Amino acid sequence: MTQAYEAFPARPLETSDGSAPAVRWPRSLAEFLLVGGVTPLLFPLSWLLQRELGQSASEYAVGFFFFYGAYVINDPHFAVTYLLFYKGFRSRLSDHAVSLSQRARYALAGIVAPLVLGVWAALSLATRSAVGLGWLIQLMFLLVGWHYVKQGFGVLTVLGARRGVRFLPRERFAILAHCYAGWAYAWASPADLGTEVEEKGVVYTTIAHSAGLERFTHVAFLASVLPLAWALLQKRRREGRLPITAGLVALLATVWSWTIYSTFDPLVRYAIPALHSLQYLYFVFLLKSGEAREREAAPYFEPRLAVRLGLLAASTLALSLFLLHVAPGVLDAALVSRRDRATDLGPTPYLAAIFTFVNLHHYVMDAVLWRRDNPDTRYLRLPHSGWLGLREGGGLSPGEEAS
Question: Which of 133, 206, 336, 351 is the most buried (most CB within 10 A)?
Answer without folding.
Answer: 133
